[in-house]
């Protein structure tokens, strides 16, 4: 029992350092423990025209996350009905603050 009580602060510290707000790129992606700023592709289609662009974001701070960074919302925000390709951008600092943006291109 003493060992269990002794390890409790270590487990709590590990959970705190890991952070409750982690970047959640649509395809995983690279995550830095101190700072993350990555972009990447999500999908591409056979549509060849991309005259419009739409974005949707979600973010979190100190364990509370909010927003809608779905492809559907990004397409609606840009007035897009035919998607050409989708990218994402994730930024995070110390597991305390994180933001993911999905960018949809199409017509």
Keywords for this entry:
alpha+beta; 5-stranded antiparallel beta sheet
Distance between the termini: 63 Å
- Number of beta-strand segments: 5
Largest sheet: 5 strands, antiparallel
Strand order of the largest sheet: 1-4-5-2-3
Category from helices, strands and their pairing? alpha+beta
Low confidence ranges: none
Number of domains: 1
Number of helices: 2
Mean pLDDT: 81
Radius of gyration from CA coordinates: 18 Å
Order of helices and strands: HEEEHEE
User: Portion of residues in helices?
Assistant: 10-25%
> What is the percentage of strand-forming residues?
35-45%
Give a summary of the structure in a few sentences.
This protein has 107 residues and is an alpha+beta fold. The protein is built from 2 helices and 5 strands, in the order αβββαββ. A hairpin with a 2-residue loop joins β2 and β3.
Walkthrough of the structure:
The protein is built from 2 helices and 5 strands, in the order αβββαββ. By secondary structure, the chain is of the alpha+beta class. It has one domain. It has a 5-stranded antiparallel sheet with strand order 1-4-5-2-3. The protein starts with a helix and ends with a strand. 24% of the residues are buried. The mean pLDDT is 81.
Q: What is the topological layout?
A:
Layout: H1 2-18, E1 35-44, E2 52-61, E3 64-67, H2 71-78, E4 83-93, E5 97-106
Antiparallel strand pairs: 1-4, 2-3, 2-5, 4-5
